[in-house]
Amino acid sequence: MGSYKQNAFKYATIVAMGGFVFGLDAALISGTVKFITQEFSLSELELGSVVGAPAMGVLLALVFVGYACNKYGRRTTLMIAAALYLGSAVASALAPTYVSLLVARFMGGLAFSSISLASMYIGEIAPPKWRGKLVSMTQINIVVGLSAAYFINYLILGWANTEAPWVQEWGLDTNTWRWMLGTEVIFALLWFVLLFFVPRSPAWLLYKGRESEAVSMLSKVTPETEIQAKIIQMRSSLENSNQDRSMLTQLKEIFGKPMRVTMIIAMTIAIAQQATGINAILFYAPTVFEQLGIGTDAAFAQAIYIGLTSVVFTVLGLLLVDRIGRRPMIIWGMLWIILSLGVCYYGFETANYTITETAVSELSSIPNSVRLNTLVDVPFDSDISFKTALIETLGETDARDYSGLLLQKAADINALLILLGILSFIGAFHFSIGPVMWVLFSEIFPISLRGVAIPFFTLVTSFVSYLVQKFFPWQLATMGISSTLLFYAIVVSIGLVILYIYLKETKNMTIEEVQLALATRRKT
Fold first, then answer.
1. Could you give the C-alpha distances from 492 to 13, 172, 248, 339, in angstroms and in order?
2. Which of 70-74, 378-382, 403-407 ranks highest by mean pLDDT?
3. How far does Cα 249 stand from its chain's mean position?
4. If residue 329 lies in a helix (H) or strand (E), which one and from where to where?
5. For the chain, is the Cβ count within 10 Å smaller at the N or the C terminus?
6. Which residues 6+ apart lie within 8 Å of 326 measured at CB?
7. Considering the entire predicted model, what is its pTM?
8. Which residues face 352 on adjacent strands?
9. For residue 513, how many other CB atoms are within 10 A of its CB?
10. C-alpha distances out from residue 65 to 15, 207, 426, 450, Å
């Protein structure tokens, strides 16, 4: 491998590490849901607010990130994001109240724009034939971070349940969730330091009129014979755009008729990616697995399989994105997602819940468990009706705190079918629309608009993500798990139809060639 190839991979790897910190930040909260709900006495919507706070934070950040990355550069903005991750991790671990935890999580969300910025930076330094693989490294790091978070949560929970002297001395048994969130500090600090070794984007340097520096940077990641052609292509993209580069003007250009196909593709995939419900599964993984009636400890263990599945299928997607192409991976991947959600819907919809007299006698950990005698041998055909009866019998607090144990004793459910359906859904997402959306975002916008376009459509997907995270606990409590998954499947089906009509293939094209392809309204 030539030195320019080594440099391209090195810089992309460091920048993509932001994906790892993102994944860690996003998934660590999944292990804390029960702890913080009990400690702060949270309602479903309050819990959704804590889990979804980063998604709300990124909504604010993305309003300014386009301005920041154009004015100060991609690298500087990434360093700001790393510092925000670090501050958020410290503040979250030490949060004394619900409000302070909410604010700390919101601060972390201000850094979530690092994902779109990483895709932007890598797309600007990567040769066309490598762009898909290098941009997808961000997604690889996200799922590695997710997997690491699930493992860390499982490990800390296991330690907390022991009676080792050091566990009590360090407070793992009484501050379990704080240790979970605090582990992010190490990785956020490491990423912040490594970003000092990354050069500025050549596209941004040319955008600022610093052509000699852009040439110097390109010499590190591009063969000498291709540098001048690359400069000409970037300059042409800048010159052919609207020279008034205010944010409003660029947004008007994005929504203008010449870019209508690009806008439809970007808007649809931005909504559909998060409307799959992926972050409901990822950020509430132990809660979702508890619905299978396998108990809390087993639910934490099963969550690790989500992380491992994510890694395997993201790697496969990374290896095949430039071979199969963007369009087939997204179209077939979304169909795969819909079928997987359908399997999960069927499994939950056909479940039954009944508490036996034997089960009640084994529930000694529940205060005054004889209260459950009124429910003995009473069949319930849905999780909603069962949970409603538990609340009426035990009260909201006990029903919530012991829900995992009660579901374990009462559920008659095809857990294996649903587990396979969930893992199939995770695999489908991370093989297709998960990483490929960021590849498309790095390709379909001209250089001059990318600083506004990518953050804007990331804003769209982040808003949908926030809605999913915010309302998932409420949906579980009011709609039930089966109807919630069916809702996701229907929304994704609508997105699939739109993308089938408009999405075109962009593999192995330069960014300039992509603009020409999207200017015509024909299917590829």
1. 31, 41, 30, 11
2. 378-382
3. 30
4. helix 326-349
5. N
6. 132, 436, 439, 440, 503, 505, 506, 507
7. 0.77
8. 412
9. 14
10. 16, 16, 30, 11
